[in-house]
């Protein structure tokens, strides 16, 4: 959480917005992402997938990024 908070990202909504629209050099992956230069030229993610990803990132950060079954070292 410290890293997220230090970068001004403390909520699921903020994680969602960065994933959808991008920030800095990181491109956005939302289906309706604009402006053109800020968004990925590759495949876009459906809104529901971005919501699930934001919830996952927030949950993992709150729990200290625990290992997930299937993680390979």
From TrEMBL:
Keywords: Electron transport, Transport
InterPro entries found in the cross-reference section: Cyt_c-like_dom_sf, Cyt_C6
SUPFAM superfamilies named in the record: Cytochrome c
GO terms of molecular function: electron transfer activity; heme binding; iron ion binding
Protein's job: Functions as an electron carrier between membrane-bound cytochrome b6-f and photosystem I in oxygenic photosynthesis.
Name under which the protein is recorded: Cytochrome c-553
